[in-house]
Queue: 2 jobs
Job 1
Amino acid sequence: MASRKTIIGIIGGAETSQENYRLAYDVGKYIAGNGAILACGGLSGTMEAASKGAFDNSGCVIGFLPGGEKSEANAYVHIAIPTGLGIARNILVVRSSDALIAFPGSYGTLSEIALALNLGKTVVYMPGTWDLKKIAPVDSALFKEAFDASQAIGLALNSLKGGGAI
Amino acid sequence: MASRKTIIGIIGGAETSQENYRLAYDVGKYIAGNGAILACGGLSGTMEAASKGAFDNSGCVIGFLPGGEKSEANAYVHIAIPTGLGIARNILVVRSSDALIAFPGSYGTLSEIALALNLGKTVVYMPGTWDLKKIAPVDSALFKEAFDASQAIGLALNSLKGGGAI
Amino acid sequence: MASRKTIIGIIGGAETSQENYRLAYDVGKYIAGNGAILACGGLSGTMEAASKGAFDNSGCVIGFLPGGEKSEANAYVHIAIPTGLGIARNILVVRSSDALIAFPGSYGTLSEIALALNLGKTVVYMPGTWDLKKIAPVDSALFKEAFDASQAIGLALNSLKGGGAI
Amino acid sequence: MASRKTIIGIIGGAETSQENYRLAYDVGKYIAGNGAILACGGLSGTMEAASKGAFDNSGCVIGFLPGGEKSEANAYVHIAIPTGLGIARNILVVRSSDALIAFPGSYGTLSEIALALNLGKTVVYMPGTWDLKKIAPVDSALFKEAFDASQAIGLALNSLKGGGAI
């Protein structure tokens, strides 16, 4: 479809280190720079950093909020979806995304990585997040490590080429 | 928020008359013309008509699909959300919208009207859809009839003024 | 399946009249007496009345709660499902039920009637609830009025005979 | 509440080894023997094994199915909930359970472990499943290894003592 936009999901903790905040900001900037939409959980930390990066680069940010109020969204979300589904909203971040980039985070982030792999979506993961390869034979075509923002967005976008994923 | 976009939801049958197709197309056009985003179920009939109207007027259309594939969306959806939730996705059309405009439709449309009123959202309804006022004392501040596209979008946008709804 | 239980859903307001409380209590009693499980939203009013009726007749009650805590359930729910999905939990009351009995209620009840009819499930409705036949040509094989508890449960159970519904 | 039943969730692969089938069968038997209800995803493999164990011991099994048809459930499910939510139904297995026992499984099982830990629920895990402790500092009060069926059910039930979890 001429109209259909590529969507890249950003997952990671609502609390984050300064280093990862900067990294997520840069990834958000690249997502916007490549004409893709950024999807996330719409809250603070990693989600806010990436949202701000996309926002500052004239991108579009969609936030799937756990609660029922749009005011829950961080200041850089253009399209706030107050799902009212609680943690079950994680599936929407995953399903809306054509590929995902995972930052360090807690169990919520882990659930999103798991759901994405379950649905056969590429997850590019940054250092410090759940490195599942160490405990199980995870498909390396779907689960790929990146070490900086440019590599992350490159791997995510490359995974969509020639694919029915979009 | 400077970034937050107003979202107007369009609900109505996946099959529709030529007259309602034209009406929904015009409403979609007005939504885009007013700088709002159009949310809908992403499929055919009323949803497609309104999507095309917004698309043709350089708007942005978000479609909450019942299935798990983005290809299910009509050709005018920019942001396809393949929820995989089946009919339960109706709640997302309702919750994402700041106000809704209801066209004639079947039980799915009725469920969306009911959910919107339950959540205290304004529903502007076009002739021929479920006229609940005939069977129960529905709050007329929330449930308002419109007779043409311009009146519908006017009532929907007016309902958001001065409100915490956005 | 030898193991599969028939489930009858009860929908209706969280606030109810004394008369409808008694009626819902009797319907709950009959559901248990017929060896069926009662499904409902697990809260007060109509839901509590029917739950108590089933409970007092040694039945089994499943409550799909909007919030995330089992303590939200009324005292007669055996199986509390704290869905955390908010009003979206209505779809679970409907989908789990083989047939539904509708009491007077507000928009939440209306959404459940609409979702049930959308899924082709029989809805037996008691006087005073949303009488959709007055505003649209609703399929009378699915949407049937009952005037007392015994008739209601009779119509609900009869609708399941010979059917793939169970 | 006098009426409220304890619910133990069983999660694990839809395909399973003979050894784990037997183990899950035994766990299901113990769950029923302790008067608890077994919740699971209602399908084959681990879910079927545990369901059969509970069924054979006069227990009660609730299955949260991804699809919309009760016929999808294995033969030992008493209460079939055809959620129609796809993989999003995993949250219902987790939320309905007071504690969970995890068998080896793929990404779906991992998502359930993650969601359970996110909600502060005890997950007793059997050898061969996702051993998250090897890659992150998981709270050992919530995530406990068991080596046989009797130990698993013991740890799960013990975790509920003195708690508001039930």
Job 2
Amino acid sequence: MFHRCQPPSLTTSQQIADGFCSFCWRDARTHERGGGRLRASLSAFNPDKCDPPSERQKFNEGQANGSNSGAKTSSSTETADVALRRPTFSKQPPGSVSPARRQIKEVKETKITINCVTFPLPGEGPEQQLLKPNEWSYCDYFWTDKKDPQGTTSVAGFEVLLQKQLKGKQMQKEMAEFIHERIKIEEEYAKNLSKLSLSPLAVQEEGTLGEAWTQLKKSLHDEAEVHLKFSNKLHSEVEKPLLTFRGDNFKKDLKKYDHHIADLRKQLASRYAGVEKARKALADRQKDLEVKTQQLEIKLSNKTEEDIKKARRKSTQAGDDLMRCVDLYNQTQSKWFEEMVTTSMELEKLEVERIEWIQQHLRQYTTLRHETDMFNQSMVEPVDQLLQNVDPAKDRELWVKENNTGEVRPVDMDI
Amino acid sequence: MFHRCQPPSLTTSQQIADGFCSFCWRDARTHERGGGRLRASLSAFNPDKCDPPSERQKFNEGQANGSNSGAKTSSSTETADVALRRPTFSKQPPGSVSPARRQIKEVKETKITINCVTFPLPGEGPEQQLLKPNEWSYCDYFWTDKKDPQGTTSVAGFEVLLQKQLKGKQMQKEMAEFIHERIKIEEEYAKNLSKLSLSPLAVQEEGTLGEAWTQLKKSLHDEAEVHLKFSNKLHSEVEKPLLTFRGDNFKKDLKKYDHHIADLRKQLASRYAGVEKARKALADRQKDLEVKTQQLEIKLSNKTEEDIKKARRKSTQAGDDLMRCVDLYNQTQSKWFEEMVTTSMELEKLEVERIEWIQQHLRQYTTLRHETDMFNQSMVEPVDQLLQNVDPAKDRELWVKENNTGEVRPVDMDI
């Protein structure tokens, strides 16, 4: 099957295993990882930008070139495992050629597997473009596990994203608490103002001045009402929404994501263990074959050709097993990759929504503050009006009418 | 001496006692009560509007007319005393004519003395115009003493005016107290807001949303500062002035007025007692003269003409005494009248000043309220600004830069 990212000259008749393209080992139909769902997640994903060539591709190239090469096995002493570089050989699966007949060609290490996830080493393979350039998208930046500062354990990148969402939930709860405290302060203030407005202090002041004073006292009650209204709206329009936004289901949903991704990592670890086991088995079989072949050549033992054929067969089987295990591992890693992209995009969206939702509700807070100050100011208007009307002459008239003792002036006494 | 309110035909050669005009018994030079000081108080006072004519005027008229009239004494059964109407007679002071020779002329009662102050009876004498028309001036409405509801004691009209000023002082003190309570409420509110602004709630929120949240919390402290400023200004610009306006000297000044006027009333009472005593003495002398005259006519006794002349002399003296006492009483009443007008005008002015001063300071209160609400509103501006700047994409960039675990994407494992 032709691959659109492969020049026509590099065709191969190698059976395409399990519907995966032999060139890039992606979905043979779409040449993309994971098919439709992922395509939806990565709308900017460019299928022409393949992963760095795999060993299978090298194998294909080797076959086309017809070169013979020896093999040199190398084992890694690092904590991570570098993929065993199979020496190139013509037309034969890993286990079928005697190690002695192989051409040893030094193959550079280009990949590294850390915590069961395989990465290209720096500078190796084609440059990786961001899946979503210029967006600082979660799906681009959380592939590696994060090491604990102490250095012993590590946390999946996905876990970091999940923790952020959980923290976001905590933030909204704390914000609600803050608003609640403000509400209590406002209610206290309103209660105090209201109580003072009922004070009988200077209640005996009469006339226009008395009216102005009465209104001034009343205005405290009006102010109290304004603050009470403010606190009620703070409760219904800011605090309560902050408390109920995303309810309890949210945490359950997050847990689902968490478990789902964690399960896929476990599967990957399991697959990786399988690969390691198959690798060892192959090494054992190859060693056995080598030993037996050498023995035959120096006619050391009475091992027959039959034994060697058997050893060779087992070696070939082991090679096939390894290939199968690597296939399964890569499939599982693809699946995990796909879910990582999809789910981290979901978390990203949730974070955008969270920020915008909180922004909106904090704006509601400032709107209420504005309103409150405006209403509060207007409570002073009637007082101003009455103070403007204060008229000592009028007050004297009112008071004198009420309190005069007599208009008739004294006159001289008669004798 | 001619009197400008007296037609030239009614001249009299009666000695003008103590510099008082014989017609209206006011100051002979100015024909006004009390002279210059009072003139200043009553700028609208019209010297042409004299008090109703006194008995002296009637005496003068009687002399001019040359009529003979009898006398009818009447005694009052009311609590007030009506002036003893001396029967008119020609050219002779009260005590010099035998009661029997007098023509009895019914003289209507036109005045009444209450608590030693003499008033015209309703409908008697020329109509009194207000000293300060259309002004409801204190000097026009507090001449009579106010009876206690229980009916036993009474309070001088002046006392009512004084009490009003003292109450005014009490009012300003109570207003200051009210403002003080407001100050305490504001300080409490400010303290609570300030404390809450330091809350670490949601301090972990980062990026543009975190900045907006931080500013929101800070704005509470800014609001607290506004309310603290408000309370400080309330104290210095409203409460303190209300407490210190008119200080302690004010009450002392009021007491001085009180005592001064009260003393004049006591003097008046004393003069009145003198008049009553002289009236009684005259009645006794007249009775004695009458008895002696009758006895002579019916040749009842061996009383000589000498005895009658003696009795007549004593009667005349008693009449002179009475005239002098009435003069003194009227002088004292004039003095009191003058002081009443001057002092009540002073109290009136004090009340006008008090009202205007309080009006001004309560306006300061409303100004501070306006300012406070405006400052408070402006404390929300920076929060609004930062909320407007909230940018989920920016926050993602910041967070991802800080927290990413790795950009390199996994690749397929090689065999």
